[in-house]
Write a structure and sequence with these properties.
Layout lengths: L1 H8 L3 H5 L19 H55 L3 H12 L26 H6 L3 H10 L7
Length: about 160
């Protein structure tokens, strides 16, 4: 009986080849089928519909890539600015640089030095940088200017 079960599960290969039940395929070459106009039109419309569906995602992809490139460039610029600011910050940790900037910007002098101020004789009083004491007396207080701007109607410019 074990022999019989084994023979049922195995089919000899030679038997399949010679079987009269299977039809013989004589011509296995490529079959040429003429495409009629309706099928061609349907395939063309399907291709156009597929391209139309792909336009928006491709555009979004390209816009996203452009945005990434722009942001990457912006990040690089900010990193360069950060590096220059940190280099400037490191300069302020140097005592000699601080003294130099105090002299240049604020006009500080070291003990024992003499400062000279050179005034250009061609300068007129109207070109002065500072305000004179008479100009300060003429100026109204800030709250008076504020009250006038609110209380008085605006005059048309002529």
């Amino acid at each position: 009986m074990a022999q019989r079960q084994r023979s049922r599960t195995r089919v000899p290969v030679a038997h399949r080849r010679d079987s009269p039940q299977l039809p013989r395929l004589k011509n296995l070459g490529p079959r040429v089928r003429k495409i009629d106009a309706r099928l061609g039109l349907a395939m063309g419309l399907a291709a156009l519909a597929l391209m139309a569906m792909l336009v928006a995602p491709v555009r979004n992809y390209l816009d996203g890539r452009a945005e990434i490139a722009r942001l990457t460039e912006s990040i690089e610029l900010k990193q360069r600015q950060k590096a220059s600011l940190q280099a400037e910050l490191e300069r302020y940790s140097d005592e000699a640089y601080i003294r130099q900037e105090a002299r240049r910007r604020l006009g500080f002098i070291e003990p024992g030095e003499v400062a000279f101020r050179i005034v250009d004789p061609r300068m007129t009083p109207q070109e002065q940088v500072t305000t004179s004491s008479t100009d300060e007396a003429i100026q109204p207080e800030w709250y008076q200017v504020l009250w006038r701007s609110v209380a008085e109607p605006e005059r048309p410019v002529q």
